[in-house]
What we know:
Keywords: DNA-binding, Transcription, Transcription regulation. It holds the Pfam family GntR. By secondary structure, this protein is mostly helical. It has helices spanning 2-15, 27-34, 38-50, 68-94, 100-118, 122-140, 143-160, 170-186, 189-209; strands at 24-25, 54-57, 60-63. The chain has two domains: 2-63, Orthogonal Bundle (Arc Repressor Mutant, subunit A); 68-209, GntR ligand-binding domain-like (Four Helix Bundle (Hemerythrin (Met), subunit A)), CATH 1.20.120.530. A three-stranded antiparallel beta sheet has the order 1-3-2.
Amino acid sequence: MQTDVAKDQLRELILDGTYPSGARLTEMEVAAALEMSRTPVREALRALAADGLVRPSGRGVVVAALDRDHLDEAYQVRAALEALTAELAATRQSEGRIAPADLVALRDVANETAAVTAEGRFADAVRLNRRFHRLIAELAGNSMALLTLERIWDQIQVSTLRSLAPPSRPAHVSGQHEDLVSAIILGHADEAAKVARAHVLDTRTVTNSKGEPA
């Protein structure tokens, strides 16, 4: 469906900073950029407004960013939901409901994220970090949590993109990822939730001062 294609393409342009927070967009400009008619673009903009990525402004929209207080709230919700998805993933693993190949994939992404971060490939690290956390949410088997996290992750990414910098403690971040993977593989639900919550709250603290992702 053209509207879905327009939404996905425009969302990616927002998340990668092509259209940064504060950028004003019009149907005509976006339609030209995406080489589409204005109707699917109009519907895509409405959908992205519902997701909190843009807000109406005059005859167009503006790419929205969370202010400091709302960003802090977003991290609090993210911490709670990622603790839940980590707990659910570990529980499903203990019950034998997760395929070994999925656990291998999770560890591989964690290792790749650590490697590219250490190499200073920051853009790749941001992308892989998002993939790592999404994989855990997928392993949790809770579609509502995944959908809600996707929206929160998008809003946080847009709101912090301009201030992002390579993490000052890459070994600490990678260590938390490894601890989280291990807890899930071992089926330790309480530990997985604890590590996930602490990891996100650490991220919130660092982001407030430097904008680093994790």
